[in-house]
C-alpha cells in the first residue's frame, strides 16, 4: 500500500545535462531498474553536474632538523588541529619479543615530563578544552600525536605538546598504574566479538609479519621497564623523518614560528629512513571459528592480502570496493541486509600502506543464518569476479566517489590529510587534482581483472566468531575449520584431534 | 503569498571564506531565518558559503516516548521504513541517490524525536528536498518492506544489546529509574514487540506523526536563503497538515527510597555499577548546572572520578558521569567498571564520596574554566559543520521553540557557579532519589585452563 495524503502531483524536475569544463560523467538514460535489494524509479530531480572543486593544498617547508611542516590555513572557525607523525616510532617497530612497546611508550608520554606530573598535564590541557593524544597500532610505521585547540590557547597547547613529546619522564609509579589499567583492558577487549575476529584474521593474513599482531599480551606488558620506554623514545622519537601537519586558523608563517620556538631544539640524528617489508604471500584458504559462548550473532570477517598505497591497482580497487561494500549502496549491504534481512550491516574495506595490505568484508548475522549469510557473501565476491559490473551501477559508483569531494571541503583536516598522503607516499604533485579523471578512466574490465586477482577464492580466509556449538557444523561446508577459544588459543585444528 | 506566522530575518553569513585574511576573526553567532509554512512545517535556514555543501535535517516530533505497551521499538522501526520508498522514490533509492551524488545520509531515533539528515554537494538542493518531502507525504508501506526492516532492526538489537557485554544493563537502568512507561522502555524495543508489528500499525503511525505540522526542517550551507525557502515551499507546501498528535504525559512519580537491582551477564568479565538520579528536563538552570557537574566529575583525566577512582585507588578501570538530556524528566547517571579483583561495593562507596565532596567544598576555578571552555569549544566546532548546525537548530526549535538557543548555550554553561553545583548535588544526588544496578559477570564459557582439556566439537 502507498499511504499518502492527497496533494498536487509535482512535476518531474530534471535538470538539463550541462556540459562543463571539468569533470562530467555522461549519465546513461535513466530507466527503472532493479538492483538486488533496490528499486529505482528515476523520478527525483538530480543535477547531472558534478561540482568541480579545487581542493586546497597545504603549504610545506622542511625545517633545519629534518621535520617536514605542512600547513593548511583555514579561517572559518577559531580552532587549530595538528598531527605529529613520527615515522619509525610505530608499533611496526616493536621488538619481536616485545609486542606493544611502541604503544606503551605512546600512552605513557602524557603521564609525566621532566617538569610536570601526569595530573598537571591533564589539568593544563583540559582546562583549555584542548586535546592531545598519542597513539599507534601494531601494524603502523608511525606513532601519531594528534591535538587540537581553540586559537587563543594554541601556544599553551603547543608548549605542552612539545614538553610531552621531547621530555617525557616515564615515572615508575605511572608505569605501574598503567600496567594495571592495561591488564584490565586486555581482558575487556576479549569480550568484544569484533576484536576476536580481527585478531584471528590479521594472524591469518599476515602470519609473522608485524601486522599479524593486534594486541600486546599480559607477558609483554608485564616485562616492560622504564628503561625500555626511555630507550624506545630516545631511538625512535626523532625529527629526521617526522611530519608535522596543522590545519585551521593559522598561517604558514605563524605555524613556522611556533614550531621553531617549541620544536627547534629537537635534534636531528642522521638515522636512515625506516624501512618495511611485505608480508609473506598468504597461505591457502582456511576457516577459523572463535567460540564465544552466549553469542546470539555470528561475526563474519573474510579477507585476504591486497595492495600497497603506491600500487597501480589502487584506483581500480577503490572503485571495485565501492561497488562491493562501500556503504549502504554496496552489494554486500543490498544483498545481506536489504534483500535477505540477515544483518544490520555488511561492508568491505582495504588498507594500503607502504607494505602489501589487506582487503576485508565483514558483517554480523543472527546465529541461525550463519551458513546462508556466509554463502551469500562469498557469492557476491564470485559475482564481481565472474561478471562485468552493469554499466549504470558502474557509472554510479565512480560518480559517487568523485562527487563526494565537495563534502570534504567542509573539513580542513580531511583536506590536510590529502596533502599528507601525497607527501608520505611520494605521489605526484598533481595527484589529487587528477584523481577524478583517473577514477573516470577506470574500466569495467579492469574492475573484473582486479577482482579476479585479489578476491581469489583460494586465498580468502574466513573468520567466524560466535556460538561454536550451533555453527561449527555449517562452517565445515566452507573448508577445513580451525577452532579457537576467546583467549586466542587454538583448540582444535581441522581434521585432527587436540 | 503564504500566510506564515513568523518571519525573522537576521543578517547574513558567518564565515569569511577559506582563505580569509588578517586576524581570521569569524562571526561567533549562527544567523538564520525562521519561517513557518501554512501547513505548520517550521523551516530554519542558515547560509554558509565556506564549502559547496548543504545539510538538511528533518526533525519529527515523535520518539519512543510516544509508544505504548506491546508496540515498543516502533518509532525506530518506523525510521527504517522511511528509507524503503515513497510514491516517487523506489525501495532503497533514497540511499542510492544520495550516495551516487556524493552525499551521506542517516537517521536516528531516541526517546524524544526522530531525526533524518543528509549532506549533499550544494547543487543537489532539489534532490534533498524532493526526497524529504516525498516521504513526508507518501510513504510506501508493504508487508515485504516491513518484514525486511524488522529483520534489520532485530539484528541491530542483537548487535548493540543482546550480543554485547552490558547490553541488558543499558535497558535495565531506564526500566528501574523511570516510573513512566514513556521513558522507561527501551527505544530499540523488545523482540516480541518487533515481531508483532503490522503494516496497519505502521500506516497509522505515519498518519499520526509524520505530518508537516509535527516537524522542523533545518537547512544549512551554500545556498541563498530566499531561493532555498522558495524551493522548500515548492516541495513541502502541498503536503496537508494533520491533526496535532496526542500529547504524552511524561510525569515521573516522585521517588522516595533507593531502588536496587542486580543482573547476571554471561558476556561480561568485569563487574559494573550504574547509578541514576532523577533530575529536571534539559535546558533548565538546574540541568545546566548538572551538565557542568558531570564535566567536572568525569571529563578527561583531570576529572575527579578518574583521578580518585581509576588512578589513585584503582577501584575502577573506567568511571564516568553524564546528564541525560531529555525533553522531559531526565537522569544524572554514573557508570563504573570495577577493576579486576576490586570489590564493587567499594567502587560504589568511592563514587558516592566524590558526590559528597561537591556538596561540602566549592569546586576549584580551573574546574569551572574547564567546563566553560568545553562548552565554547563545542559551539565553535559546530560552526565548522553545516550538519551539526542543522541538527542543533532543528532540535532547539522542536524541543524548546527557540532555535536561537544555539547561540546562548555556551553562555548558559558559563554562568554556572560553584554554589549552583553544591546546590544541585545536594538537591538531586541523594540516596532516596537514586536507582542502582549491579551487573555481575557470569561467563558461560569455562576459564582457559578448562577449555584446553575439553572434548573436540
Q: Can you describe this structure?
A:
The complex is a heterodimer of chains A (498) and B (457). Chain A folds into two domains: 59-263, Metalloenzyme, LuxS/M16 peptidase-like (Cytochrome Bc1 Complex, Chain A, domain 1, 2-Layer Sandwich), CATH 3.30.830; 286-492, Cytochrome Bc1 Complex, Chain A, domain 1 (2-Layer Sandwich), CATH 3.30.830.10. Chain A has helices at 101-108, 118-127, 154-166, 172-189, 193-206, 218-222, 226-236, 252-263, 314-325, 331-339, 370-386, 391-403, 405-408, 412-424, 435-441, 444-454, 468-476; strands spanning 33-35, 38-40, 59-62, 68-73, 79-87, 131-135, 142-150, 242-248, 286-291, 297-305, 343-350, 358-366, 461-466, 481-484, 490-492. In chain A, a hairpin with a 6-residue loop joins β6 and β7. By secondary structure, chain A is α+β, with helices and mostly antiparallel strands. Residues 4-34 of chain A have low confidence and may be disordered. Chain B is an alpha+beta fold and 457 residues long. Chain B folds into two domains: 7-236, Cytochrome Bc1 Complex, Chain A, domain 1, CATH 3.30.830.10; 259-441, Cytochrome Bc1 Complex, Chain A, domain 1 (2-Layer Sandwich), CATH 3.30.830. In chain B, 41% of the residues lie in helices and 18% in strands. Chain B is built from 17 helices and twelve strands. Chain B has helices at 74-81, 93-100, 125-137, 143-162, 167-177, 181-184, 191-196, 199-209, 225-236, 285-298, 304-312, 344-360, 365-383, 386-400, 409-414, 418-428, 448-451, and strands at residues 7-8, 33-36, 42-47, 53-60, 104-109, 114-121, 215-221, 259-265, 272-279, 316-323, 330-338, 434-441. Chain B has a seven-stranded mixed sheet with strand order 1-2-3-7-4-6-5, sandwiched between helices. In chain B, a hairpin with a 5-residue loop joins β2 (33-36) and β3 (42-47). The longest helix of chain B is centred in the middle third of the chain and has 20 residues, at 143-162. The interface between A and B is large, with 107 and 114 residues.
